[in-house]
Structure formats: C-alpha cells, structure tokens
Amino acid sequence: MIEICHVSKRYPQSGTNALDDVSLTIESGAFFGLLGPNGAGKTTLISILSTLLLPSAGEIRIDGETLGRRRGDIKRKLALITQHNSLRSDMTLDQIMELQGRLYGIPQERILRRREELLAFCALTGHRNKTVRRLSGGMKRKLMLCRALLTDPEILILDEPTIGLDPASRRQMWDLLRTLNRQGLTILLTTHYIEEAESLCQRVALIDQGRVARLDTPENLIRLLGPVAVDVFAGDHTQSAFFPDKEAALAYAGGRSEPILLRRTTLEDVFLTQVGRGLEAV
Ligand SMILES: Nc1ncnc2c1ncn2[C@@H]1O[C@H](COP(=O)(O)OP(=O)(O)OP(=O)(O)O)[C@@H](O)[C@H]1O
C-alpha cells in the first residue's frame, strides 16, 4: 500500500508550489491514475515517490514504512519509468537488460532467465540484438518496461507511459499493463489522456495546480456528473449539459433550435466542470 500523507513541494528556484498538501492512499494491487493538465504537479509527485525529489513537507509510506533515500529496502519495491527515453542508444536490448541486472546485483542466471521471459512478454525477442537507436518509439517504451520489471518490483510507476506513441503501440502498452496488474503488480501512472485513464484505471485522482480536485473511480465521477452529455453549438461557443439518462438529455435537446450533439460524458467533462478548464490546457 502507498500512503501519500500531506505532501507539499515548493521549488525554491521558481517559487512554484507544485504540490499543496496532497494526501492519497493507493491499495496494493490497484491500478491508479493521476490525471491532470501540463503543470498540474503529476511528475513532481511521482518524482517524490521514486525519491528523485524530496518533499518540502509531508511523507510517503510504503506498506506502513516511511520512504526515504536511504531506505534501499523500500525503494526496491518500486520501479519508475520516466516520460523520456533513458536508454543508451548504442546498446542492444540484451545489453541493456544485462547492465540493469548487474547494477541491481541480480545473479547472472536469474538475469538471463528474466530477460528471456520479459523480452518474450513484450514481444521484443526478435529485436534483442538491435541497438536502441534502431527501435521504434513503441519498442523503446516496451524496453523501458522490461528493464523496470527485471528487478521484480511490487509497484510500477509510469509517467505518461504512452505519450507520443501511435494508436497501435499505445494499445499494446495498455494490454501489457493490464496483464501485469492482473498478475498482482500495483500500477500508478500519470496521464493526460482521457481514454487511457478511463480504460485502465480503477481509481483516478484529478490533479489541478498541485491539489487533488477529485478522487474516485472513473465510473463514479462520470455518473455523478451525468453519463449523457448534450453539446449545444451556440454561435462561437459550445455549451455542454449533463443528464442521468438519454431520455432526460433528449427532452433538453428537443426544444432547441441550435445544432446539438448527444454523446457519452468523459472524464474530460468531469475535469472541465470541476476546475473550469480542460486536461490539454497548459
Ligand atoms: N525543477 C523545477 N524547478 C522549478 N519549477 C518546476 C520544476 N519542475 C516542475 N516545476 C513546476 O512545478 C509545477 C508542476 O510541474 P510538474 O512537471 O510536476 O507537472 P505535470 O503535471 O507533471 O506536468 P507535465 O504533464 O507537463 O509533466 C509546474 O508549474 C512546473 O513549472
């Protein structure tokens, strides 16, 4: 279990309060999403979780124990996959995996066995002797996943795992993450893709300006707003209204002369109504 307890982070250089008294609990085995626009504080929070950054206030507890830079035993439960490619471009997949295993002091025989399993799991075995520079973006992201899993973490943290990927690679990554979660891995990811959060996460925290604006299952957040949306295109602006069912939405739309669109409510709508701006807003 991950407990984020009253965590705040101020960057002294810029004076930015990136996180403001954030408290969250993420149960073991959960698939949890931190959803928010650019600059909301998502990366800061997972950098603190992975001890790359220290909080200005508050603490993180993993299975009841306080996380700190010197707690190697707790840190080993976590693996982080960053947003940016952190792979050496002149190394092959096999070499990257072997190097990671050695860095973590994993016995050679285990490195070789896990490397086989993980490359096969991510459908990368056929590319194992290629250098990273010859891989597609999707393959690089999968290799980062293999490398993170080599240490057998209990909690996998991913910062925008599918940013910049084409739709097919994005879906492949989703399938891999779903399988890992079904096998018991706790997954925490940040995203500003609505579809990603809705399709993968059992619970999401909507983060805005360093605060948790809402925390619930995607289904509940949408149900509470109203699962059927009506967009009314009124001249230069679009007005959206939300309803508990199609009948209520049709009754509202029926008497209007402007063009309308009936659609399913999304987490983006929840975000917009909650914080007054969308997830793509910078
Ligand atoms: N090293 C830093 N020094 C100063 N300010 C920073 C630093 N890193 C982030 N910030 C600021 O802290 C706030 C939160 O940034 P953060 O990167 O955590 O947001 P984010 O939600 O992850 O956004 P993105 O999706 O763009 O990565 C922003 O205002 C950002 O400009």
Description:
This protein has about 280 residues and is α/β, with parallel strands linked by helices. Helix content is about 35%, strand content about 30%. The protein is built from 10 helices and 13 strands. It has helices at about 40-50, 70-75, 95-105, 110-120, 135-150, 165-180, 195-200, 220-225, 245-255, 265-275, and strands at about 1-10, 15-25, 30-35, 55-60, 65, 80, 155-160, 185-190, 205-210, 210-215, 230-235, 235-245, 260-265. The chain has a 6-stranded mixed beta sheet, sandwiched between helices. A hairpin with a 2-residue loop joins strand 4 and strand 5 (about 65). Helix 3 crosses helix 4 (about 110-120) and helix 4 (about 110-120) packs antiparallel against helix 5. The longest helix has 16 residues, at about 165-180. The radius of gyration is 21 Å and the shape is globular. Bound molecules: adenosine-5'-triphosphate (ATP).
Cα distance, first to last residue?
A: 32 Å
Please report which band the strand proportion falls in: under 5%, 5-15%, 15-25%, 25-35%, 35-45% or over 45%.
Answer: 25-35%
Q: Strand order, main sheet: write it out.
A: 6-7-8-3-9-10
Oligomeric status: single chain
How many H/I helices? 10
Number-wise, the strands total: 13
What binds here, in terms of ligands, is: adenosine-5'-triphosphate
Model regions low in confidence, pLDDT < 50 over at least 5 residues = none
Q: Topology as H/E string?
A: EEEHEEHEHHHEHEHEEHEEHEH
Helix and strand composition category: alpha/beta
The Cα radius of gyration reads 21 Å
Helix content: 25-40%
Mean pLDDT: 92
Q: Rough shape?
A: globular
Query: Biggest sheet, open or closed, and with what strands and sense?
Result: 6 strands, mixed
